[in-house]
Amino acid sequence: MTVRHFLQFKDLRRDEFEYLFDRTRIIKARFKAYQPYHPLVDRTLAMIFEKNSTRTRLSFEAGMHQLGGTAIYLNTRDTQLGRGEPVEDAAEVISRMVDIVMIRTYEQEIIDRFARHSRVPVINGLTNEYHPCQILADIFTFIELRGPIQGRTVAWIGDSNNVCNTWLQAAEVFGFNVHVSTPPGYEVEPERAGLYGTDHYEQFADPMDACRDADLVTTDVWTSMGFEAENTERVKAFADWQVDAEMMRMAKPEAVFMHCLPAHRGEEVTAEVIDGPQSVVWDEAENRLHTQKALMEYLLLGRIDDR
Ligand code: CP
Ligand code: NVA
Q1: Which domain holds residue 164?
Q2: How confident is the model at residue 198 (pLDDT cuts 50, 70, 90)?
Q3: Residue 306 counted as domain residue
Q4: Taking the model in full, what pTM does it have?
Q5: Domain of 153: which CATH number?
Q6: Is 215 a catalytic residue?
Q7: What mean pLDDT value characterizes the chain?
Q8: Is 200 one of the annotated active-site residues of the chain?
């Protein structure tokens, strides 16, 4: 059987996402009703972190426990990965000892190399290029609150980073549109974003125009992990790309505001917006747990029917 990985959003087909969302609804409802559900007894998840995390670590670790399995946390500071052991060797060894691996690292190339040498599924927990688990949760959240996302408009304001790239891939998979507004010099790089070349995004010089009639407005930090040396110049360049109430008024009245978190109030978003009535950031964060449980179940057990 071929091992399936989730290294970037387009690794799964639309029908697979629809299945995952069905499973997420069931798994979430059982969790809320305190019904034990342990399909992954005796399965072990290794989580490898080369960058900091709160949500990703907690949602994978808690999620694996809740499914009956075990999660092991590794980081580069105290493993041999931090002392130059080749990623291919690490993959060979780690994947003989556990059933599934999640990695948060720098270049996408690192996780791609790991996956090529892994006997077990590998999940991208964030790279410089992509954050597929985040958008899995975000799209589930949108559908849960507002219905199908197909044909809708998402406004992305700020840096064309890993989260932005993943929204753009998701737009191709689900058939929605992304209005992107970045400062000059920080535009989307279609090849780095891994786009098929289809026409699902449009660039806007003015962030107000990008928000016009949007169903969802979203942003992220101006300086992502790994780019801290650029912080001073980024703070200057991004000053006009702050999501505020005026921008939200350009969007549809029922538009939601999303942010993957952690957020910097007063930089990429005002407190009024992120703490305001249109913000769904806490649902978004919670749904990391439920969607990733469905993802791990799918990668390990395939399609199941246990309604
Ligand atoms: N959104 C997200 O991935 O958060 P963490 O960096 O806390 O994992
Ligand atoms: N773009 C951010 C997301 C953090 C969850 C980063 O890569 O730091």
Answers
A1: 134-281
A2: confident
A3: no
A4: 0.98
A5: 3.40.50.1370
A6: no
A7: 97
A8: no
